[in-house]
Design brief:
This is AAA family ATPase. By secondary structure, this protein is α/β, with parallel strands linked by helices. 34% of the residues lie in helices and 14% in strands. It folds into three domains: 12-151, no CATH class; 176-359, P-loop containing nucleotide triphosphate hydrolases (Rossmann fold, 3-Layer(aba) Sandwich), CATH 3.40.50.300; 370-461, no CATH class. Strand 2 (76-80) and strand 3 form a beta hairpin.
C-alpha cells in the first residue's frame, strides 16, 4: 500500500489515478538505486533529513527502503482515498525513478485497475486484517500476506483469466464419528465448534483426569483434517516468557566462531507465519496449563490481538518493520487449565474476555457420562464407573474430584491386581497430598474401602473371558 500524502491544493490521489503513477516524497533525498541496502538508505536519510526527529527519520527510512527494494514491476499496489472509504488497486509497471515534483519525487508507473469500481475496505468481503493494516501510519505498508485476497476483488477484464476465488476460512462441522471416538455428546462437540467460529479461542478447565489435553489435541486434528504439521503444542510454566513464546534473542555461534545473539521465532510466531501462507486452512496452537505462566508477560502486546483480530500492533523487537502485526483469523488457540490450584478464580478479566471457557468436570456433562460410554464401547462391566462415582462422593471439595481418564486404560481390566497397583501408586498419592490434614486418606479413598462400600471385589471390574463352547471343539 502506498498512501498519498494530503495536500492543501487538491487530493494528490486524483493525480496518481489520472497520471498512472504512485510514489513517495523524497525531494531532499539524494538519488538512490534499487538494491541499495537498508543500512545505506538509513545513512542517506539521516544525512539528508537531519532536521527531522529520530522517529520521523526511521519512518522515512522504512518508506524509501520498501519503495526501492520491496516493490517490483508486476506487484499489486493499493492506495486509500483521503476519506478512507475507497481503496484503489493497480499493477506496478516500472522501476523507481526520481522526478522534480516535490510532492511525489520518487515514483513508479502504475496501471490502475479499478478507478471506476474502488473497493470498500470495510466491506464484509474484504480480507481479514486489511482494516488493521490501513490504520498503520506509514506511507508504505507491506500487504503481501493479503495480495491474493485483494486480487480476487479486482473487476473482471474481458478475455483475461478469472481472478482466483476469495479464500475463506471454513471450520469443519461436528461429526457423529468424532463424538463417539471422544466419548463426548454430539451437542457438546457441536457447541464447541460454533464457539470457535465466533471467537477462535477456547480454554478447557477442570480437575485432573478429565481429558482436557486429550480433547484439545483431538479437536485440533479434527479442525486441521488430521494435518499434524498444522498443530503445535506448548506447555506454559512459571518461567515461560514472551521471548520463549513469540520471539526472543538466543545465544548463537557466529560464522566467525564468535558467540553472539540471534532473534529466534517462538512457536506462536511460527504458527502465525505458517497460517498467513494458507489463510483458508486452520492452524491450531494448543497451550497446555495456560494458567501456570504470567499471561500478560507471555503475550505482551499480542494480548490485544486475541480480542481484535483485524487490528495491528507494533512488535516489541520491531520485526514488523513498522507495518504492524496482525493475528490471522485462521490461528485457533486451545488452552487447558487445571482447577486444583484454584487458578480459574485468579484469571483476570482480560483473559476471561478473550477466551471461551468450557468446564470439564466429573459430575457434569460432557465428562459425567464419559467413563460409562468408554466401558460400554470396550464391553467392560459398568462397575468401574460406580467406583469413580463413589470415590468422588467422598471428596467434598469439587475442584479435587477425579476425572475418568485415570480409569480409561484397558490394561487395568485385563489382569487381576492391575487396578489395585494403579490405585496405590497413582490415584491414592494424589488424594493423600490433597487431603493431608484430614486424617488417613487410605481409609476414605483406598480401593478396598470403596469396593467394600459397593459390595464388590476387584474381579467384578475385570473383562470377562470369552466363553468357549467345548462341545464344538
Amino acid at each position: 500500500m502506498i498512501r498519498a500524502p494530503d495536500t492543501e491544493a487538491a487530493d494528490l490521489l486524483d493525480d496518481w489515478l489520472s497520471g498512472g503513477y504512485c510514489g513517495v516524497e523524497a525531494a531532499r533525498l539524494r538519488q538512490l538505486d534499487s538494491g541499495i541496502s537498508e543500512e545505506e538508505v538509513r545513512r542517506a536519510v539521516g544525512e539528508d533529513y537531519g532536521h527531522l526527529a529520530q522517529v520521523a527519520i526511521k519512518d522515512k527510512t522504512v518508506e524509501v527502503h520498501l519503495f526501492l527494494n520491496r516493490v517490483s514491476p508486476g506487484d499489486l499496489v493499493a492506495s486509500l482515498s483521503k476519506e478512507g472509504d475507497q481503496l484503489y488497486l493497480g499493477e506496478v509497471i516500472s522501476a523507481p525513478r526520481f522526478t522534480t515534483d516535490r510532492t511525489t519525487s520518487l515514483r513508479r508507473s502504475v496501471r490502475w485497475l479499478n478507478t471506476e469500481q474502488p473497493v470498500d475496505p470495510f466491506d464484509d468481503e474484504t480480507p481479514d486484517g486489511l482494516s488493521g493494516k490501513l490504520g498503520v501510519q506509514l506511507r508504505v505498508v507491506d500487504l503481501t500476506d493479503l495480495v491474493e485476497d485483494l486480487g480476487a476483488l479486482l473487476p473482471a477484464v474481458a478475455g483475461a483469466p478469472p481472478p482466483p476465488p476469495l479464500r475463506t476460512l471454513h471450520l469443519p462441522d461436528a461429526t457423529q464419528k468424532l463424538s463417539e471416538e471422544l466419548f463426548v455428546r454430539f451437542e457438546d462437540l457441536d457447541d464447541w465448534l460454533h464457539l470457535l467460529r465466533d471467537r477462535p479461542q477456547i480454554v478447557f478447565y477442570g480437575p485432573p483426569g478429565t481429558g482436557k489435553t486429550y480433547l484439545a489435541r483431538q479437536l485440533a486434528l479434527h479442525l486441521t483434517a488430521g494435518r499434524r504439521d498444522r498443530v503445535t503444542l506448548v506447555q506454559f510454566h512459571p518461567s515461560y516468557a514472551y521471548e520463549d513464546f513469540f520471539e526472543g534473542f538466543r545465544p548463537r555461534q557466529g560464522k566467525d566462531g564468535q558467540p553472539g545473539f540471534e532473534l529466534v521465532p517462538g512457536p506462536f510466531r511460527r504458527t502465525v507465519e505458517n497460517a498467513r501462507k494458507d489463510p483458508s486452512s486452520p492452524y491450531v496452537l494448543i497451550i497446555d496449563e495456560i494458567n501456570r505462566a504470567n499471561l500478560a508477560r507471555v503475550f505482551g502486546e499480542l494480548y490485544f490481538l486475541l480480542e481484535y483480530r483485524g487490528e495491528t500492533v507494533h512488535l516489541q523487537y520491531g520485526t514488523d518493520e513498522g507495518n504492524g502485526f496482525t493475528l490471522p483469523r485462521n490461528v485457533v488457540i486451545l488452552g487447558t487449565m487445571n482447577t486444583v490450584d484454584r487458578s480459574v478464580a485468579r484469571v483476570d478479566a482480560a483473559m476471561r474476555r478473550r477466551f471461551s471457557f468450557i468446564e470439564l468436570h466429573p459430575s457434569a456433562e460432557p465428562t459425567a457420562s464419559m467413563l460409562r460410554a468408554w466401558l460400554h464401547s470396550h464391553q467392560l462391566p459398568e462397575a468401574a464407573a460406580e467406583l469413580l462415582d463413589e470415590l468422588n462422593s467422598r471428596i467434598l471439595d469439587r475442584d479435587f474430584r477425579l476425572g475418568p481418564s485415570y480409569l480409561m486404560r484397558l490394561g487395568l481390566y485385563e489382569q487381576p491386581g492391575a487396578l489395585a497397583r494403579a490405585w496405590r501408586t497413582s490415584i491414592l498419592p494424589l488424594l493423600e497430598d490433597q487431603h493431608q490434614d484430614e486424617g488417613d486418606a487410605a481409609e476414605r479413598f483406598g480401593l478396598p474401602a470403596l469396593l467394600a462400600e459397593l459390595g464388590l471385589d476387584e474381579s467384578a471390574l475385570l473383562r470377562e473371558p470369552p466363553v468357549v463352547d467345548e462341545t464344538s471343539a
